[in-house]
Design the sequence.
């Protein structure tokens, strides 16, 4: 679990906004590696990924992006939703 002060719905809204304005890349490639947290910050909630947490490594444009497991799941769901064709 993350240390985010936001609820899941609030975090989802933030992800949608950041995907839409380009501050967060969509997770088109998926998870590259999963390992224990390194103390670096999650690209989704911006909090530290502690050594007792799973850290998901995602290949992105220009490098590797890191996320908590729970944050990655929301990020991936919102990425898929954002890329789906819009119905009229």
Sequence:
């Amino acid at each position: 679990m993350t240390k985010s002060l936001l609820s899941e719905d609030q975090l989802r809204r933030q992800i949608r906004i950041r995907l839409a304005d380009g501050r967060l890349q969509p997770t088109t490639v998926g998870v590259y590696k999963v390992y224990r947290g390194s103390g670096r910050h999650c690209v989704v909630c911006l909090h530290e990924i502690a050594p007792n947490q799973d850290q998901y490594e995602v290949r992105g444009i220009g490098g590797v992006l890191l996320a908590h497991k729970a944050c990655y799941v929301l990020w991936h769901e919102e990425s898929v939703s954002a890329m789906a064709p819009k119905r009229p």
Remarks:
- The first helix runs from residue 8 to 20.
- The mean pLDDT is 87.
- Residues 8-83 form one domain.
